[in-house]
């Protein structure tokens, strides 16, 4: 069995163990046989939460029996592969008891979360359009740039209402009107097809029907 760990800062960027040791807030991710098995979030150098991943070829009760009943975990299980995306269901595990579903998460081939649905108190959905590495060339408008590592657009649904938050190196903005958002940014988003726009501006389906 091969095991290794990765460390990420709060922006989700890979860092070295030495860099992590100098931070108060970071994530430690443990892998077994190239599959994520545990994710620990640290806040002020203290453990904030622990996610444990249990795969369909593993026995749930056996894996749960390995955990410390004095700690609270989030258990990821019921893995499905839909349209090439990994879909995980997350449940609270506390005092040896597995609780109800609290979160559904959709992961792309680059291990990025492209969508999640929280069901802890009220249902909320977030979809993330990653812009990193996308090159925009528009001679007529004299646009020529490449999106940077943490450039992204967030589509948040709360009580049926959509908020779009644009965060990138060229411009930022916050919108509740789809037409205003697209009218403002369409020249900088030539790769956002009508199908992709429709996916991100509607709460369902949670799993993209296309590769983003």
From TrEMBL:
It comes from the Bacteria. This is DUF4178 domain-containing protein. It comes from Flavobacterium sediminilitoris.
